[in-house]
From TrEMBL:
Keywords from the named record: DNA-binding, Transcription, Transcription regulation
Domain HTH lysR-type: 7-64
InterPro entries, sorted: LysR-type_TF_proteobact-type, LysR_HTH_N, LysR_subst-bd, WH-like_DNA-bd_sf, WH_DNA-bd_sf
Protein name per the record: LysR family transcriptional regulator
CDD domains the record matches: PBP2_CrgA_like (cd08422)
Family per record: Belongs to the LysR transcriptional regulatory family.
Alphabetized GO MF terms: DNA-binding transcription factor activity; sequence-specific DNA binding
PANTHER family hit by this protein: HTH-TYPE TRANSCRIPTIONAL ACTIVATOR TTDR-RELATED, HTH-TYPE TRANSCRIPTIONAL REGULATOR
Length: 302
């Protein structure tokens, strides 16, 4: 005899969120319910299906083989339901509520005054929480609505909206080049003490495109810094050269305090992106901030 039972859609939603958040605590925060409720619902689901869906460790959870199969099917259903709800709410809602955004320190310093002033004045029903940090943030796992990130995006599951594109420049002070000489080819950078930008995920390996094709050079030096504003300040001391986004050095070049070299060679473009987990996370408040940032970055020289 076949047993007919009512599907519990809430169990599916909770299961999907636990898999995506990779732990019960983060999922409970996203769902706005106690962790004990999340754990109980998952246990009920596994009991009803007669299968273990999650492999639990002390710090995270991962789907079993059956769990991965179940997640694939449920995620589509949950996404469709969320998009249906969102389509209705977006037609009715003004931008409001808590908006959690994370961004690197360099970008935060540049755009924070505009966000803290003009944006909040324009949208009085939005509460803004900004994490200014150079650490890598898991948007879904840590409950952020959006991130502002620079450079190449490594997570292909995220949706990126380009806010700004600018050149990268090799810069130094006039006094430095007078003393050490001006490099005429990318390979000559090996003879110069470069300030190296480094974070947990990047190193300064630079690809130049020029008359002789492509040349790849690794910038080397005795000073390594993971903050562009600090690199700019160190470069002004006159003992080294560095690679900087045009956005961070164009004012100093205009003032004659820095000089760019190898301008006939094309370096990689530096991009700044607004990033969010999926199209269904493009809520009115996220959409409003992206539109605001589009205007802010659009006023900058490209």
């Amino acid at each position: 005899m076949r047993i007919v039972y009512m599907l519990d859609f809430n169990e599916m939603v909770i299961f999907v969120k636990v898999v995506e958040a990779k732990n019960f605590t983060a999922a409970a925060t996203l769902l706005g319910m106690p962790k004990s409720t999340v754990s109980r619902k998952i246990s009920q689901l596994e009991t009803r299906l007669g299968a273990r869906l999650l492999q639990r460790t002390t710090r995270s959870v991962h789907p079993t083989e059956l769990g991965a199969l179940y997640y694939e099917r449920c995620a589509r259903l949950v996404a469709e339901a969320e998009e249906a709800e969102l389509a209705i709410s977006q037609c009715q809602e003004l931008p409001r509520g808590l908006l959690r955004v994370t961004m690197p320190v360099d970008i935060g310093i540049s755009i924070m005054p505009a966000i803290a002033g003009s944006f909040l004045e324009q949208y009085p029903e939005i509460q803004l929480e900004i994490d200014v940090s150079d650490r890598y943030v898991d948007l879904v796992g840590e409950g952020f609505d959006m991130a502002i990130r620079a450079g190449v995006l490594e997570d292909s599951t995220l949706v990126a909206h380009r806010l700004f594109t600018g050149r990268m420049l090799i810069c130094g002070t006039p006094a430095y080049f007078e003393k050490q000489g001006v490099p005429r080819r990318p390979e000559e950078l090996a003879n110069h003490d470069c300030i190296v930008f480094a974070s947990r995920r990047t190193r300064d390996t630079v690809k130049f495109k020029g008359p002789r094709g492509e040349v790849t050079v690794e910038l080397k030096g005795r000073l390594t810094i993971n903050n562009l504003n600090a690199i700019r300040g160190a470069c002004l001391m006159g003992d080294s050269i560095s690679m900087l986004p045009e956005l961070h050095c164009q004012d100093l070049i205009a003032q004659g305090k820095l000089v760019s070299v190898l301008d006939e060679w094309q370096l990689r473009e530096g991009g700044i992106n607004a990033v969010y987990p999926s199209p269904r996370h493009l809520t009115p408040k996220v959409r409003a901030l992206i539109a605001f940032l589009d205007k802010q970055f659009g006023n900058l020289p490209h």
